[in-house]
Amino acid sequence: QKLIAAAPTAVAPEKSGFYERMVSKGRTPLYPDDILWNFEKF
Questions:
Q1: Mean per-residue pLDDT for 1-20?
Q2: pTM score of the predicted model
Q3: Over the chain, what is the mean pLDDT?
Q4: At a CB cut-off of 8 Å and minimum separation 6, what does 24 contact?
Q5: Which molecular-function annotations from GO does this UniProt entry contain (predicted)?
Q6: According to the model, what pLDDT value does residue 42 have?
């Protein structure tokens, strides 16, 4: 339980627009703590 309580929250870079692009394409994450990957940067 200590590890769960100490888990950091995800922080999105400001003005990246990544989340908005995902939502506009119908790829909204199911949960707020889902990890989103931007494979265009690799």
A1: 81
A2: 0.51
A3: 81
A4: none
A5: peroxidase activity
A6: 65
Phi first, then psi: give them for residue 18, nearest 5 degrees: -65, -50
How far out from the chain centre does Cα 9 lie? 10
36's tokens: 């989103």
Tokens standing for residue 14:
């400001």
Token duo for residue 27: 């790829």
Asked if residue 38 lies in contact with residue 18, where contact means CB atoms within 8 angstroms, the answer is yes
Instruction: Please determine, for residue 32, whether its predicted confidence score (pLDDT) is greater than 80.
Output: no
Burial 2-25, CB ≥16 within 10 A → b, else e: eeeeeeeeeeeeeeeeeeeeeeee
